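The passage that follows is intended for readers who have already worked through the single-chain material. We present the inputs for a multi-component assembly, then the predicted structure in tokenized form, and finally a short commentary. You are encouraged to pause after the input and sketch how you expect the pieces to fit together before reading on.
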Amino acid sequence: MSDQPVPRRPATPMAQQILDRGSLLDDAKRLPSGVKAAGAVFALGFLAVNVAIAYIVIDGRLDGHWYDFRDLGNAIAQLRTELDDTGTGPWLSYWVTGLIGGVAILSFLGGFLLIGSWIERRLLARFQIRMGPNRVGPFGLLQPLADALKLMQKEVLIPIGADRLLFFLPPILVFIPAMLAWGPVPWAPNMAYLDINVGLLYVISITSLSVLAIWMAGWSSNNHYALLGAMRTVAMMVSYEIPISLSLLVVVLLTGSLNLNEIVAWQGSHNVWMAFLLPFSMFTFFFSSTAEINRTPNDIAEAESEIVAGFHTEYSGMKAGLFLAVELGNALLVGALFATFFLGGYTMFGLEEWVPPYLILAVKATTGYFFFIWLRGTLPRFRIDQLMTFAWKYLIPLSIANVLIVAVEATIAARWEAEGIVIYGSFALVNLALTVYAVRAWARVIGYSAELEHPEGPRTADRIGGLKAARQIRTGA
Amino acid sequence: MTVTLAHYLVVSGLIFGIGVAIALSKRNVVAVLMGVELMLNASNLAFLAFSRFSGAFQEGTEPLAGHTFVVFVLTVAAAEAAVALAMAVLIYRHRETVDLDRISVLRW
Amino acid sequence: MDSTGIVIAFYVLSAITVASALSVFVMRNLVHAIVFLVMAFIGMAGLFVTLSADFIAVAQILIYAGAISVLLVFAVMLTPLASRNNGNSLYVGPGALLGAAIAAIVVFTAVDVQWNELTGAALEARAFPDTIATIGDLLLGRHVLAFEVASVLLLFALLGAIVLVTDRGAAETSEDAEDPAAAGVTTEEAR
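Having made your guess, compare it with the prediction:
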């Protein structure tokens, strides 16, 4: 690889605008001094409040009280006992606390949907050296609101020959599983809306329901593109449910519970993330999830360049908006589930004593969401046969082998009396080595070999594009 | 007002009857299969109702044998659906129809 | 089982289930029938929950509403000349009569027999707090032979489905006839 500098590109007006624009830091420096002072006061106050909170928490005065803001579930439990004491029967506390939880989940998701599409478009624009939406409101923050208003004003079209009942239902039906699947996600030790024993199975089964809604949307539209997109989605989702289930089965083998709260608690008490112990399951879950929720690199269901918009080609107005919103919400949901199963959920090696655990989970979930956007900005799209082959010939056999290996390890862990770090450290090393070996060996067995068309090696991203190249152009280096 | 074993058995019997009617009187192979699935579901409901209500066993874990049966029924239902639908596709390929009234010869 | 919530849930869910099952019989369009069948499956899962069978309820949604209905969808989409018709055969009269007779017998038996059933506190005491561990013990303990037979059955169903739908002429050229779903996609696109 030679290191010749990138030749300076001819600047279009747009590119020139981007080049002339400074970084965010320059924007901050240009703020009026009053705003700067207010920001400094706010930051200092925030810090002081946090230190005070941390002191009280460490002092032990907050433990188990309903106003312990580290775990809002305690407050709900307190409310429940108080309502039960009023003597109106258990239905009152049941309904009140259930409604509070439901409203909390809905408002969290609604808030995210408002900001999420802005984040996605801005980040994608950054990946592609564009500006992204920046006209409506400060930094374009009000763009999602404007989009929603526009969508609501649009006419709702029903194509000729469409099946009216089945055409009307899917936007609603696809929304329900996306909401329900948030139920068992634990935000703090006592803060899960549905703390059920079958939490993991519940998540898998509820998310598999959206297949039917998507198929109904595609079938009832009376449109070839929609039908093609729907059949692709159904085939893909049914195939990728198996690797997802197998990779989560491995997690259950180690933790010995289907309860999401206990899975997180296991990772917290052993001070280890599943991502270290089970690298192959982590990869399988992440990749298969991108297929389940139709994100790049597996978004063949709505591949714009092949089939117009996939199963929701014929939908207009707020119905299309609902499909898009579900797509966003599902990305965050998968981020949260990924964090719960593989990144320790609300625990962070003891940090959860200091910071409210739900904030930790929120950060981890948005990190997962950021990875999805990153993938979308980076990777090309698979073909349908490549996807199917990858699921059936590659992921599923390797996942079954992975289940066998981890079953042996779980048996060993139950009988081997040693320090946790010895047991799980050795497991992590063994699993990592086996993963690297098995992935390459199995690829060779099923006849895949990397095409070496560019023997001089791939060109790194910073030489053909990306922010680093932009900076190089900007500075003329 | 209370729900007893008889309530669940009545629902189970109704759904089983509907399943029988569908399986016997539909022309399409897929529809017949849907009737069979409804019948299996009704039997599952009866199993679970007996395991919840029956006073014949008083031990702690004994009643859950009913759940185990349901697991096997689910397995069999999945296997049966996969094979039957594969056969439906195969019949369509050979005969260009899945109309049971027209599939009247045993070999072709 | 006499708290108001469970009684209401039972009646609502059984109404949904029975009405959806009847709709499957009545609907002229096979696709609509599948949608109502899924509704019946989900209502049935709700009934399982009222019987405190949480694991079975979730498995029901996963297997019936999530997998078998998709198989049905594929079978319908792969047989275009069947014209999505849910018509009745010549035997609709006897069939419906037999179904009604069986339902009548079961309902009569259920109402007439004096069942040896738990009531009141004894019933509440048997509320199955954690079914999964016990079901696992039973499956791999007392019923392990049946468990193994079931897994062999599943394996043979898998093989049988693959062998049945594999087009022998095209088997050499198309490589992704791994399962009915994948094979279905290739035939759909080839058409």
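Commentary: The longest helix of chain B spans residues 65-95. Chain B has three helices and no strands. How closely did your sketch match?
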